[in-house]
Amino acid sequence: MIVSFSPAIQNLLSQLSSAKLSSLLPVEVLVLKNLSEQKFLLQIKGQELEVSTPKPLVVGEKYLASLTHDTQSNTLFLKHFHKLPLKIEQALYSIEEVVRHFKHSSKEAVTQLHAQLLSSLSNAASKEEFNFFTQLLLGLNQEFVSLPFRYSEGFGLLQYKKRKRQGKQSQDEVQFYAHLKHLGPIEGVVGLKDDEVYVHMSVLFEESLTLLQGYADEFSFKSTLVIRLKEEITPLFSLSDKILDINI
Description:
With about 250 residues, the chain is of the alpha+beta class. It is about 25% helix and about 35% strand.
């Protein structure tokens, strides 16, 4: 997806001048208008830009996109649009509450979460809140745990589900999806083999891959950590009030 150089882009570049555009992390994009079949009016950092893309975008929705700049042609490139899986007001938990969730046994953590969601559902102040809590409970009833959370840099979503592996010596894995403002979507599995934790994950953005690889040595499971790029990443359970969409 290419955006030709214009005064609006010049303003955008000045706002982003604190970082090298070739290594920018994903930026948030708001779709303002559908101009034609493959052309959209987007808002990026307060600037309105026309972008041509074959990927269907939904007017009014927010996405993360990778943004780079070709200095020779003064052109911005946007790629890998990923729809934000929730709105900021839907971030129910603090990051500290998410950490506490994982300090309990799996069964206890899910039982507590189920009770909390039932209470929130009964006290929902609007139709939107009621629909959102209903979706969280529907997912939980199918063993998909969704934890929408907020933190100092923004908000995110963590989803997971246990996945049984085949074979007598195989142990169950935990399949997960995560979305963070500065990394975008991440999916993968966590498991145990020969008493050693292994993590295989996929990311959508090259910038996110580079950043995570740079921190790999700080992880205790670095020897069994695999990170790769993937063209499309979607939530395990779509928190939509219109349709139930599950990916396994």
